Amino acid sequence: MKKIILAAISLLAVALGVEAQDQVRLNPSHPDAYVVQKGDTLWDISSQFLVQPWYWPEIWQVNPQVENPHLIYPGDSLRLVYIDGQPQLQLQRGPRAYQLSPGVDGNRLSPSIRRQAVEDAIPAIPLDAINAFLSRTRIVEPGAFEGTPYVVSGSENHILMGAGDILYARGDFAAPLPSYGLYRPGPIYTDPVSGEVLGRQALGIGTLDLLQLDPDSNPDNNSNFSIATMGVRNTSREVRLEDRLMPVEERSIDALFHPSAPGVTVDGVIVGVDEGVNQIGKFDVVILNSGDRDGLQPGNVLAIYKAGSTVRDRIAGDVVKLPDTRAGELMVFRTFEKMSLALVLDARRPLAVMDMVRNP
Questions:
Q1: Which among 186, 238, 295, 311 could bridge 264 via Cys, Cβ 3.0 to 4.6 Å?
Q2: What structural domains does the chain harbor?
């Protein structure tokens, strides 16, 4: 999961073009050097060096002598230098381990290559905040839950269940599968401008394994219904009655995020937030009314704006709309045809549904 590549330099150069070079601005209080710490993220580190962290690839100098130069590990040092008048970041690997090796005069110390798993590299963003959304939660058609089996009871009539428990599901299992995804129907979203129905959130709850399938005890109600005994393999939150079973989504989990500016013009809106909270803050997951068809890609960074208020000009006697105010940034981490999921990386003011998202 945590295979996080620092930057895809060539692809980003094409996407951002020469114009991006003119937009790179160093943070006035940037350090000359920084030692990477455990728990750091690429976003945190790039914010120390740059006013606009998504332009990190523009100052990253790839050292061909360094193994996996796009991966940064705790203990590595980053040093800011200037080459041809342009700021560049150089990577120096952390201290190498030393080991005894045979020599002419007996054993002697010699350097050995430090080997670290790719999973040890620092991530671009806090993956813990989005793991459940990467693997389970998705956007489906509004009627996708109609006719799907549902949780009718837990073992010993429990109404809340978790990993390792047994539960019973009722519904049409005409073509039973060995395992199912468990989802909770979320709200149906419409575009606030056009009124178009965009989709429905399917909140990922966990994974179930089919243990036994028996005929429904009330066949008169629905001759196609069966009662399935299911084992709860894993969960991201508690299982409730009426949660729905759907086939496990067949997709590869892409966590190779490259923070970047979108290659298209984006003018969207936050239409939802996880768990339906009223105010949105840093590291909250939000839902946007823009997706694949609008050119959004995982890794795209967008600026969040609060709409300017309308006031009356007492001198001129008319009404004036004040400018929209930039209030934070977010990064898209999963896209669907009409919508996308994004993580709020910075919130300088309380955010809310209907706040606008635009190019950074």
A1: 295
A2: 1-136 (no CATH), 139-246 (no CATH), 267-358 (2.40.10.410)
